[in-house]
Structures are given as C-alpha cells and as structure tokens.
Inverse folding.
C-alpha cells in the first residue's frame, strides 16, 4: 500500500493531491488499485516528504507509522511499512461540512467573531451560568450559522443539528458542551448590544463592498407566536401578514439600502399600525447615524398626509406609493395612450400634482394587471355562484323571511368585498336579481395593474423615479428571506427579551445571507444564496478508517478528510474565494480537533 501523487494547476499555483493505492496480483500481472482519495494532504515538494499517521491499538497505545508516496521507494525490509487489511477499510463519522464552513468564513469576514469576543466573552452580569468553559462569542456563531444553514430551534440544535455538522471540528467545541442552557444564556447576553451590532455591520459593509445608504427602503412585517406569550407585552393580536389572526404577534420594521443590506431594525407591538411607526424609525436612524440627505422609499401602507408633511418639515426626500383610491382622480390619464415604456410590460407617465413641491407618476404593469384580473374574475365567479344558490333557496321557499334574505346577501357581499361594489343586488316578488354595473366594471378593468407613486424629489423623468421605487422589492425580499430561508416564524419563546434575541439572531443570519448574495454577484455567479447553500450542503467530512494486517500488533489508522468536490461546489467556493482546509487533524483519544 502506498500514496500516489497527483498535481493540478489552480489559482496560479500547483496543488498536490494524494490517493491511497495498493498493488494487487491479477491474471494479467501486477496492477494498482485505488482504495480511497485523500485530497490535498501537503503542498510541499520536498522529495523526502512522507505522511506520518497516528495509529492506536485496542489498548489505546499510540505509535507513529508511515505511508510512503509512490515516488519514494522504501526498503523492502523496512519496519515502517504498513500492511492494511482491505476488508477493514470503511468510512465513519460523516458530517455536514460545506455550509457550516462557509457560514463560519462569512462570520469572520464580517468580523463578528471579534465583535462578540469583545462584547460578551468576559461578561458575568446577570448570568445564571457563571463558569465559562467555552467562549460565548462562539456560541453566538453557532446560533447565527444555524439560522443561515438550517434554521431550527435551540432544542433541535442540541439534539440533532450540531451533532450532524463539522462545527465541533472547526470550533474545537465537543457536542456535549452545546445544550439549551448554554444557548439560552448566550441569547440573554446578545440583546443589550443591538445598537452596537447594527453600527458594526454598517461599517463592515462599507469596508467590504463600499455600501452606501443614500437611498433607504422601509417596510414592516409580522411574525406570530406559538403559545399565549402572556408575559410579553409586545405580543398582541393585529393585522397578520401570515394569515394567522388567531395568534398573537409582533411587528418587525426593517430599513435596508437598495441592495438589501440592513441599516436598522425595530420590534413593535403586534397591534401597532404601520402608519404610526415612520416617525419613530426616522428618529432612531438619525440618532444612530446622524442626519443625512437620504431618500426614503416605502409603500402605501405607511403613507399618510401627516407622515408626508412631517418629512417635508424635516426637509427629507421621499418616494412613496399611494392608496388605491387616489387612482380615481386620474381616470382620464389611465385611459389615454400617452405612456412611456420602461420594460416590456411596464409603462409610466407623469401627471399633474395638486402641490407644486410634489410629482406624481402613474404606472401600469402587465403582469400585475393579469394577476388582478384573475383575482377579480375568480371572486366574481364565486360571488355569482353563491347568489345563484341563494336565489334557488328563495324561489323554492326554503327562505321566506326577507330580513334573513338580506342578511344572506350581505354576508355574500362581505365575503367577496373586492368585487361587491361591481354588483347591484335586489329582491323583487320573492326573487333574487343581480347585475353588473357596466361603468364600474370598465373602470375596474382600466385600473388593473395600475398604481400611483408620489415624490418630492426634483426629477422630471418618470422612468428614473419608477426605477428607484421598484427597489422597494429589496426590502420585501429581505422579509421573504427572514420568513422563508431563515425561518423567523413562528416564535416559540415566551419571554420578551428572548423574543428580541431570537429576532436579533435572525438579523445576524440575514447579514450572513446578504453578504453571501453580494459575493456571488461580484464574482459574476448565477447561483442564488439558496441554491449555493443547497449545493454546498452536499460537502461532507468523514473518517477513513483502516486496520493494519499481519501477525504483530493490530493498529487502527484514522484519517479525517473532506469528501471530493464536484464541479458546482468548486465553482461556488472559487466565487467566494474560499479554500477548504487540506486536512482535519485531531486527537483521537480525546476526540478534540487540532486545527
């Protein structure tokens, strides 16, 4: 048995890889057979190089034996030649390696390891577990990397997730030290440093990517609780974007730049109206980062005349959506043909504003129009079907009381409120009649796909204003990431501070996510963060285990290696400028990694 050398030119230099080979006798003469691929064991070109491995016998005694490269011929009677029992070769301790290694590298690039080391590693105030045998900053890394790679609860981290990853090798923290008490304690340490974390990340984004915040996008979402959360005053019932009005919730406000990099976030009571949050958010941002000529972009749910007047008094610029009812004022403009194309299915035009300091832009989207038409047609069919069934019941005498008939009609119109104003419904001679108002249906068709934006920016090109406003989708995408990929909902914690810390961990997970997104974009990669992580998830590490053969002492040779990478995995790692380690060395007796 011997090691064979393979060379490959990569990243401007030669890399040396090794395979474990054996010579076997065949009918056609001696042949060499590959036992396993060991990867890039050592880049040294020294001809006298030989790989030393630790072997242990059943009594735990350790010796150093050598496997020789194929270009170094050992003496036949050498005592250091290792004979391997081929039947004993196996793979053990497979661990997910790719995603957690990349997550840890992103954590270090954002210098969050240094930030948290300075903030929480020496804290002892108000902590239940005084002794600190592992750094809390590394526990924070585990929480954030889990949120990026495979978000689960703290209990699931202890019972399943951490044991299935190579983080114990990478952080030198054995799995028995990661449990819910330690994870909860770390959560309690984090929340007091929220403002400092936001400032640190903003500064780090600027250093890495020259990120600017001249344009900021503001939006809100909600996330619901499992449980009553009786001790959390912020947990209230309100408008649920998750379609869970039966659950208490909190509202999360997020401010990002036009590329989705976060500037700040706040947690509000679950019953807080969107329109009441703007002034508080602006004051929070100005307190943290000072006053600046920022352009604020937000959707119609946050728009009110009071909010816009407040922005004008502060001499702040805004670009916002308007409520749907405002379109009625521009019915004629909707129906004429004087539109300017932005994209294949998007058109815009300037319209006269009531105030000189404002500009209005009328926009129309083909895809949005098709969606709204489908929703209108579907609702109309369901309403008419319900009216038809009700008409049959009235005509057959199953419903005779007129008040009951009117209540049934009201219930149907209320259920399909989006189209109820298009219909005229009446009862004559115990018969139900309905018809569609032609004028209303024509107006409804005209406004489908149309929306109105307004701004106090001194700009006369409607295309440029639309392009700025459409960047609001970055804030919406951030929320989708938080809710879908980072699984911020539902919240199982019941205590207010734990809930705040849970959201803060999700915020750090999003920081890793958006950094990954930008790195892939800068490298010209077509992979999305979600796709890249799913491909990296296939990279595992494991132990190649072999037993020595012969009449003397029996030894077990254990090599911890990273599995061979395929083309996609290499492309992603090259795009991120991340190189996996050549090997993973460890102390087998103590099961502690030596990196």
């Amino acid at each position: 048995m011997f090691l064979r050398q393979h060379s490959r030119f990569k990243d401007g230099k030669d890399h040396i890889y090794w395979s474990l080979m054996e010579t076997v006798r065949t009918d056609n003469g001696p042949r060499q057979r590959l036992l396993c691929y060991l990867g890039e064991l050592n880049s040294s070109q020294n001809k006298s190089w030989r790989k030393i491995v630790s072997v242990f016998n059943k009594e735990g005694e350790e010796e150093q034996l050598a496997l020789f490269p194929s270009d170094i011929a050992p003496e036949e009677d050498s005592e250091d030649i290792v004979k391997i029992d081929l039947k004993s070769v196996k793979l053990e301790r497979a661990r997910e390696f790719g995603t957690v290694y990349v997550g840890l590298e992103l954590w270090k690039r954002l210098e969050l390891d240094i930030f948290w080391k300075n903030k929480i590693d020496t804290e002892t105030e108000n902590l239940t577990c005084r002794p600190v045998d592992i750094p809390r900053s590394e526990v924070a890394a585990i929480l954030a990397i889990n949120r990026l790679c495979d978000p689960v609860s703290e209990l699931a981290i202890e019972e399943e997730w951490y044991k299935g990853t190579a983080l114990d090798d990478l952080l030198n923290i054995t799995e028995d030290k990661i449990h819910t008490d330690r994870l909860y304690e770390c959560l309690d340490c984090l929340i007091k440093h929220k403002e400092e974390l936001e400032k640190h990340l903003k500064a780090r984004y600027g250093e890495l990517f020259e990120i600017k915040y001249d344009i900021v996008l503001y939006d809100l979402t909600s996330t619901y609780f499992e449980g009553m959360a009786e001790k959390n005053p912020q947990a209230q019932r309100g408008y649920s974007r998750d379609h869970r009005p039966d659950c208490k919730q909190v509202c999360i406000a997020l401010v990002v730049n036009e590329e989705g990099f976060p500037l700040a976030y706040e947690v509000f009571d679950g019953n807080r109206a969107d329109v009441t949050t703007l002034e508080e958010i602006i004051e929070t941002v100005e307190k943290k980062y000072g006053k600046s000529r920022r352009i604020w972009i937000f959707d119609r749910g946050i728009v009110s005349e009071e909010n816009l007047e407040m922005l004008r008094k502060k001499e702040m610029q805004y670009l916002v959506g308007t409520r749907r009812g405002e379109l009625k004022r521009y019915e004629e403009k909707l129906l004429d043909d004087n539109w300017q194309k932005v994209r294949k299915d998007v058109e815009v035009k300037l319209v006269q504003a009531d105030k000189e300091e404002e500009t209005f832009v009328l926009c129309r989207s083909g895809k949005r129009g098709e969606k709204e038409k489908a929703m209108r047609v579907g609702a109309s069919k369901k309403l008419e079907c319900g009216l038809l069934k009700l008409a049959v019941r009235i005509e057959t005498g199953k419903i005779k009381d007129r008040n009951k008939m009117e209540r049934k009609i009201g219930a149907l119109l209320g259920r399909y409120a989006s189209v109820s104003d298009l219909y005229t419904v009446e009862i004559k001679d115990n018969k139900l009649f309905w018809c569609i108002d032609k004028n209303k249906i024509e107006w409804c068709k005209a406004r489908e796909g149309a929306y109105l934006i307004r701004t106090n920016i001194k700009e006369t090109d409607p295309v440029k204003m639309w392009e700025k406003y459409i960047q609001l989708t970055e804030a919406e995408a951030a929320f989708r990431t938080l809710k879908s990929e980072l699984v911020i909902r539902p919240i199982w914690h019941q205590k207010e501070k734990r809930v705040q810390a849970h959201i803060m961990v999700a915020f750090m997970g999003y920081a890793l996510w958006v950094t990954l997104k930008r790195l892939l974009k800068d490298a010209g990669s077509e992979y999305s963060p979600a796709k890249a992580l799913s491909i990296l998830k296939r990279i595992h590490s494991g132990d190649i285990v072999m037993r020595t053969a012969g009449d003397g002492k029996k030894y077990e040779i254990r090599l911890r290696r990273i599995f061979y990478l395929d083309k996609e995995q290499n492309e992603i790692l090259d795009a991120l400028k991340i190189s996996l380690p050549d090997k993973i060395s460890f102390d087998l007796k103590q099961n502690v990694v030596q990196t």
